[in-house]
């Protein structure tokens, strides 16, 4: 039972951490003027909006504060990932299925395997 509880907590913790961090960031951030909409589509020079989602280059030029060398290394991978998700046919479903579901389960599975292996090695050493 102890092992099962550990595995469940390892699975749930990252999602709970995301929710908590997102909640506290929203409390500290200034609201975007939006004329009653959830978020504006207007490009804002000092804040990200849906314009950044729809035009990544605009966001990179105005909002991304990252080492230029690292940025130049990561941009091709970012756009390749977006292109691959669009190739699937339904970008939204592919995004949720792959990035939100499959990759976290994959990481969780191997994390559990690593912990189990380390515990077995610890038992063998004793």
Question: How would you explain this protein's 3D organization?
Answer:
The chain has 126 residues and is mainly α. The protein is 75% helix and 0% strand. It has helices spanning 2-28, 50-54, 56-62, 68-87, 91-125.
Task: Give the SSE map.
Layout: H1 2-28, H2 50-54, H3 56-62, H4 68-87, H5 91-125
Distance between the termini: 23 Å
Helix content: over 70%
- What does the radius of gyration come to? 20 Å
Specify the structural class.
mainly alpha
Say how many strands there are.
0
Summarize the structure.
The chain has 126 residues and is an all-alpha fold. The protein has five helices and no strands.
Keywords:
elongated; 0% strand; mainly alpha; 5 helices; 126 residues
